[in-house]
User: Which sequence fits this backbone?
């Protein structure tokens, strides 16, 4: 790969030979890996899914790579990031409930080895830019203590894009604290007020890339703030979207454009620094779009925070000169927990030292079009589930689910009042209340003809869908396929037996950084 890079081509013949004699020794066959994670980016928010939002860089990069069309993430920020970093389901880290709130004293268990540690063991330089959201109440939880050589970003789940301030109500103190959340390494970074985070983070990423020594393999985890709420964007990104009448959607579209530009800038930096020919670039969302903040998952049902396809079916693609079948669409079942074994495999590293993985190495499925080794996917099991932003009618549906629970489906022993979902092949089984179940209308279109509510189709406590033929989850078929239902309830019961108890501690008021402090470790 070095031979193809412009800078080496320009060197005298002898130097090139000299450099390449190092290739084997220094492991330059190991690809550089750049993982770009978008936040709350919905199914219908990318150009190549037909969105009215323009994403020329994402469209072009994915067209020359492999678009993942049967790709799943978790319905929320912390869970998706947790599985990306550990390769394990939520039930296996005790984090099956919700996200980590800023004052909760916990983090991904410290006995879980994380992806950057494994990449480091394989000889990689490891850098992270952007949102962490995997816990920070004590220093051992920070990204720099969990495998990243460098870190620049924020530790909580969201904040102001310009001031980098996060406001958190601390009920025990009867106050709402607004404080900075931005760090360079472990130090608070105070000098970036006014810098829009999408630009700030992409500048840091491009600077890491241009300073990188090409003979050392690079692992860069770029966790963008975009396009999570709050809806904030510099005016210049809004200009192309005067045709969007919904103000939220218009701001959101501008934020997506800024993100698309950031991805373009990162790609350009990889090309200019001569890394591109030996790079695998992955783009993924962390969960479905948030319809309350401009996102859209049309035509899928539900949204972020739900187990419907709108919450968990993710936008994703892989692009790389190393792909064997570029320009294809993969229909193979792939999950965010699969990246850890896949990337460690590409790195020539070992997962021997991890706890048992729930993810699979899916590189041959992506690169060569082989069948995915993943046959089943546990979306989640969360006995404490609550919808913090319920959509209209959901209280009534929750009651319905509880009333008819348990009668005909008790053989497996699985409590079907519990919020859970599992996928096997084309089948998806949901139990309990899956979360907001509306088909939100296509942006700019009239809702009345496209939206159905529970009045038409009341939810049951056990529901089965054929996702391959019914990706919109409109035809509930549990009555037609009782054997499939039995099997999947058995599988849920099997998984639930291996679940750790939920860890979801109460807020610790000692989190308060005071009027002049910054969010960060307090314990
Ligand atoms: C909390 O603060 C508000 C406004 O500062 C005040 O009105 C209220 O009495 C306080 N409540 C308690 C329990 O201290
Ligand atoms: C991309 O790079 C251009 C040129 O350096 C810069 O003006 C722009 O702000 C960058 N965009 C982002 C989102 O970083
Ligand atoms: C991992 O385990 C396998 C099987 O036990 C062994 O063959 C291999 O050498 C181990 N790899 C490392 C890097 O320890
Ligand atoms: C079943 O699960 C629901 C929801 O988590 C819970 O409220 C209920 O107590 C459970 N029932 C039994 C028998 O465990
Ligand atoms: C939506 O449909 C209703 C009823 O058909 C109609 O009165 C209304 O003008 C439509 N609105 C838009 C924005 O198309």
Assistant:
């Amino acid at each position: 790969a070095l031979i193809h890079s412009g800078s080496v081509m320009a060197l005298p013949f002898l130097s090139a030979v000299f450099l390449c004699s190092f290739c084997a020794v220094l492991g330059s066959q190991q690809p550089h890996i750049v993982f770009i994670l978008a936040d709350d980016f919905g199914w219908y928010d990318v150009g190549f899914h037909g969105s009215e939002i323009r994403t020329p860089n994402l469209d072009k990069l994915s067209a020359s790579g492999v678009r993942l069309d049967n790709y799943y993430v978790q319905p929320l920020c912390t869970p998706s990031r947790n599985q990306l970093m550990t390769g394990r389901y939520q039930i296996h880290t005790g984090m099956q409930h919700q996200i980590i709130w800023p004052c909760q004293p916990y983090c991904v268990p410290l006995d879980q080895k994380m992806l950057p540690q494994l990449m480091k063991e394989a000889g990689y330089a490891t850098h992270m830019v952007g949102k962490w959201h995997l816990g920070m109440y004590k220093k051992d939880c920070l990204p720099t203590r969990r495998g990243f050589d460098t870190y620049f970003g924020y530790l909580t789940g969201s904040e102001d894009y310009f001031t980098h301030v996060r406001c958190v109500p601390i009920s025990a103190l009867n106050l709402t604290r607004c404080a900075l959340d931005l760090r360079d390494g472990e130090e608070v970074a105070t000098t970036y007020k006014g810098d829009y985070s999408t630009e700030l983070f992409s500048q840091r990423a491009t600077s890491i890339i241009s300073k990188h020594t090409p003979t050392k393999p690079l692992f860069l985890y770029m966790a963008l703030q975009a396009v999570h709420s709050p809806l904030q964007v510099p005016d210049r990104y809004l200009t192309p979207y005067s045709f969007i009448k919904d103000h939220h959607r218009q701001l959101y579209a501008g934020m997506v454009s800024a993100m698309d530009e950031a991805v373009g800038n990162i790609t350009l930096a990889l090309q200019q620094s001569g890394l591109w020919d030996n790079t695998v670039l992955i783009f993924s969302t962390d969960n479905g779009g948030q319809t309350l903040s401009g996102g859209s998952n049309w035509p899928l049902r539900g949204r972020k925070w739900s187990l419907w396809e709108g919450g968990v079916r993710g936008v994703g693609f892989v692009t790389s000169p190393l792909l064997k079948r570029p320009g294809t669409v993969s229909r193979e079942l792939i999950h965010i927990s699969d990246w850890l074994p896949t990337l460690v495999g590409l790195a020539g590293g070992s997962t021997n030292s991890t706890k048992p993985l729930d993810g699979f190495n899916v590189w041959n499925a992506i690169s060569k079009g082989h069948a995915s080794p993943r046959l089943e996917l546990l979306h989640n099991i969360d006995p404490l589930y609550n919808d913090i932003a319920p959509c209209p009618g959901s209280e009534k549906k929750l009651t319905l689910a509880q009333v008819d629970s348990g009668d005909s489906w008790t053989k497996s022993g699985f409590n079907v009042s519990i919020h859970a979902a599992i996928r096997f092949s084309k089948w998806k089984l949901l139990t309990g209340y899956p979360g907001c179940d509306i088909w939100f209308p296509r942006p700019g279109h009239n809702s009345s003809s496209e939206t159905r509510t529970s009045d038409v189709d009341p939810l049951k406590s056990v529901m089965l869908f054929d996702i391959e033929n019914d990706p919109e989850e409109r035809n509930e078929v549990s009555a037609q396929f009782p054997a499939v239902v039995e099997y999947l309830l058995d599988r849920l019961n099997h998984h639930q037996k291996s679940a750790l108890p939920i860890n979801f501690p109460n807020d610790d008021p000692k989190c308060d950084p005071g009027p002049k402090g910054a969010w960060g470790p307090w314990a």
